[in-house]
Amino acid sequence: MTKKEADFKFIIRLDSELNKIQDFDLLLERILFEARNVVRADAGSIYVTVPDEQNEGQEKLAIKYSQNDTIQKQLPAGQKMIYSIFTLPISEKSISGYCALKKTLINIPDMYNITGDVPYSFNSSFDMITGYKTVSSLTTPLVSADQGLIGVIQVLNSKDDEGNIVPFSTDDEMLITHFAHNASMVLQRAATTRAIILRMIKMSELRDPKETGTHVNRVAGYAVDIYDRWAFHHKIPQEEREKYKDNLKISSMLHDVGKVAISDAILKKPARFTEEEYQVMQNHTIYGASLFFGASSPVDILAKDIALTHHENWDGTGYPGWINPDTGVIIKEAGGKPLGKKGEEIPLGGRIVAIADVYDALCSKRVYKDPWTEEDVLQELKKLSGTKFDPELIEIFFEILPSIKQTRDQYPDVGSH
Predict the structure, then answer these.
(1) For residue range 238-284, what is the model confidence (pLDDT) as tens digits?
(2) Among candidates 72, 84, 344, 348, which has minimal Cα distance to 224?
(3) Looking at the annotation, which residues are catalytic?
(4) 3-191 belongs to which CATH class?
(5) CATH hierarchy code of domain 209-410
């Protein structure tokens, strides 16, 4: 079997692996990794199309993930590379923008010696900031079955068997084109799943203005970041880690879906709740979990756990506490007080989303409050470690704070800059 045949067989086998990933964002990250692997690229980025707020009806490219093996090797084990969050116009001025505009592959042997007969140019600012030298690049569009643009993959610095940087070959062009075609099909499926979930969130948003798509995307992103570091510390096998992250990303987006069952008089109140109203509001955890009772898939089981327990406290003072699995009724102590869950009685997903949800709520504007300063938010999380929050997870949160901030930058509230 020739190398080319082996590479194509690898891509075909990879298709089944990619089809197992449910979340759109995690799929993008895996696609970028595998695209680099297919053509032996040291680095790369993946972009998706998003609405261009400045030009109604038009789109632009937004970076979603960037990977660089050379820079990653310089970081401590388990630490993620931080990269800039930015958008690009779909135009002839940039390489990725031109690729998106023309829906065509671009192979550049030397980024610092681009011929003068093309309209695009290379922005070397990243190289100047990091000291990393970009030489060869291969940029290809991600196009849907109906020829709609999904995004762009750009891979950088192909390496030969001795580790030397070389131009991407014509074989690489064929491989990446075939891979991009298959990846686009899988992305369409994942985008449909994401759209269904966001419609459920939109339904909640119609009832509760706080429950926005950007809020749930941020909470889900923080949750995956926290879990990934926790899994690294606990030496969770990579395959198990990836499956849990995929389920967690989707499940955590649905953490407050039970609010659709709370009356508008309480849900949309532009002030703090009375004690009686707060008691009613607490039931959203039970209502949300009830949507998944009897479900057997891993994502549904995790969604039930998170919806039910993301307001439990580490010291047992949270809500709703223990629930009778047969009746759905809260179990109470002898004095009538709900029997609270505490410590590791609270499922890991619930403990993680508790931190992610509170962090985002404190950072965000609400009808009854302005956003807290970052310093005050971080002080509050430290203060609540060991009482409201799992102390180990709080330590992990601060370990990965740069990643948390990057996730927040990826999903700004509409109208914020």
Answers:
(1) 999 999 999 999 999 999 988 888 888 888 777 788 888 888 899 99
(2) 348
(3) 259
(4) alpha beta
(5) 1.10.3210.10
